[in-house]
Design goal:
Number of strands: 2
Radius of gyration: 17 Å
Structural class: mainly alpha
Order of helices and strands: EEHHH
Number of helices: 3
Largest sheet: 2 strands, antiparallel
Strand content: 5-15%
Strand order of the largest sheet: 1-2
Helix content: 40-55%
Length: 95
Amino acid sequence: MACRSDPSGTVLRCLPRAFGTLFRDWARKIRADRPEELVLQPTDRRLDQVTLPVTIHSFGGGRPGPDPSGLDGEPLPRSEKKLRNLLKKEGFWMC
């Protein structure tokens, strides 16, 4: 088995080889047959940024919830929270 899950089905850990193989396969598929949203956008420098969330999602992973302070289940450091709150206050937060 390439991945371990908890009883609720949430993926806890995947073997690097399984993740790498799936990442490569998704990257090739995205590059060869771009989704409609990416047809006019160059992906040569950003293909990894497009592929990574797709790969994580395919293993059942993702953000822990709607609160952006808990990326990957880890709280943001105080300095990053302060910056995030300033961006929100000034209307620049994009969530």
